[in-house]
């Protein structure tokens, strides 16, 4: 079996790369308890570990996190109370997600409602 192209190895590193399925991303986000947050990197680590891979693709994982967020917001607008808590996923260092529905302001609102401290001017949620 031939290895990955050199350009891909340079970008994502050696080892087994998981291309996650959207339902796996959704299921992993649903495991994040109220009052907790995780970074996208931590989410990728969890997905990879669960699949027996070395790492999860940052591009597809990021796309699926956004799709999960959009679907959750549609479900909220339809009147459902229980949705995937996508707002508990933040960028590195607690950075709020620009591409989530409603942008950083909406994510900050969800996080503050769960007791997190958010610096809205810096668009950062302080990691506990």
Report on this structure.
This protein has a single domain (17-125), classed as Arc Repressor Mutant, subunit A. Helices cover 46% and strands 9% of the residues. A hairpin with a 4-residue loop joins strand 5 and strand 6 (124-125). It has five helices and six strands, in the order αβαβαβαβαββ. It starts with 5 loop residues before the first helix and ends with a strand. The strands form three sheets. The chain has a two-stranded parallel ribbon. The relative contact order is 0.15. It has helices at residues 6-12, 22-30, 40-51, 58-77, 103-113, and strands at residues 17-18, 38-39, 55-56, 89-90, 118-119, 124-125. Helix 2 crosses helix 4 (58-77). With 128 residues, it is mainly alpha-helical.
Fold blueprint:
Elements lengths: L5 H7 L4 E2 L3 H9 L7 E2 H12 L3 E2 L1 H20 L11 E2 L12 H11 L4 E2 L4 E2 L3
What's the average pLDDT? 91
CATH topology: Arc Repressor Mutant, subunit A
Q: What is the CA-CA span between the terminal residues?
A: 44 Å
Q: Class in CATH?
A: Mainly Alpha
The low-confidence runs, each spanning 5 or more residues with pLDDT under 50, are none
CATH architecture: Orthogonal Bundle
Strand content: 5-15%
Spatial arrangement of strands, main beta sheet: 1-3
**What composes the largest sheet?**
2 strands, parallel
Brief descriptors of the model:
single chain, 128 residues, mainly alpha, Arc Repressor Mutant, subunit A, two-stranded parallel sheet, 6 strands
Quick structural gist:
The chain is mostly helical. The protein has helices spanning 6-12, 22-30, 40-51, 58-77, 103-113, and strands at 17-18, 38-39, 55-56, 89-90, 118-119, 124-125.
